[in-house]
Amino acid sequence: MSIFFLIAGIVLLVVGGEYLVKASVALSLKFRLSRIVIGMTVVSFATSLPELLVSINAAWDGHPDLALSNVVGSNIANIALVLGATAILTPIFIKRISYKFNIPAMVLMSLLVYWFLKNDLVLSFTEGVILFILLILFIYLLIKNSSLDGEMDLDELDEIDEDVEQSSIYRILLWLIIGGVALWGGAELLVKGAVELAKYLEVSERIIGVSIVAIGTSIPELAASIISALKKEKDLSLGNLIGSNIFNIGSVLGLTAMIKPIHVQDMKLINSDIIWMLFIAIMLIPFALLPKRNKIGWWKGTVYILIYLAYLYIVVR
């Protein structure tokens, strides 16, 4: 039954996330917000909602390691798995704003989470507030400095603009209801399945969280990236993946800690998993500067995939 709960939960999260992104973008278009504001706020937050609900449910039900490992594992998967797999299929071009602002911001917020947890093994309410405030600051500075590259490529928007632009308010409300119910149900089932599977396999919740749950909550990003690459529509915007990781830290961990402080139980989360998350994030800096400059091609993507497989092997061995 735990496998059924996991699969059903992942399916509901994917469906719920899709409907919620559509509804969010449609509402933003109704209010005539710019593409940059829509992409880096509404879309990024909507695609982070699966992680948010899973982490809140896990923390609330007394599974803090699952709440934390979900975010850490998802951030690792977004870069090493999603970015790596997509780069193998099609080159990803790194915009100037990514290596001058987005990547350093992601690394700094990751370091801050590591310091908060290493200090007392708790992500407290106050620390959650700090992370959330930094997220708001990041969004403000991103929009202010967006002129570095002009208007950003937003692949998610390109996929759904035509579908949602003329949507009625009733259709948008229906999408919100479907998305919200699916996400809530998916989060409940995924947490239940993850906890039961961990007990059945006699492994820690951390292992299930950084592997199965993290990959499950990253499936929407992976599917969208692979489909975009296969259709050869547009180069994947690295800024969107980095933005998703920053939202995972600022909104998912921040809001979860504000609702219920996250107490670390498995020290490997701090001594291993977050170190991997930092390493994979920092790797983007030399990858952006090494030949070919500002481009992540198939060989860099292959390196990331191999690193991700090595990480999973170390986790589950």
CATH fold type: A middle domain of Talin 1
Please name the fourth-level CATH homologous superfamily: NCX, central ion-binding region
Assembly of the depicted chains? single chain
Beta-strand percent range: under 5%
Shape: globular
User: Roughly how many Å is the radius of gyration?
Assistant: 18 Å
Describe the structure.
- With 317 residues, the chain is an all-alpha fold.
- It has helices at 2-30, 35-60, 64-89, 96-120, 125-144, 155-164, 169-201, 205-231, 238-259, 268-282, 284-289, 298-316, and strands at 92-93, 122-123, 262-263, 295-296.
- Strands 1-4 form a two-stranded antiparallel ribbon. The protein has a two-stranded antiparallel ribbon with strand order 2-3.
- Helix 1 (2-30) packs antiparallel against helix 7.
- Mean pLDDT is 79; it is low at 148-160.
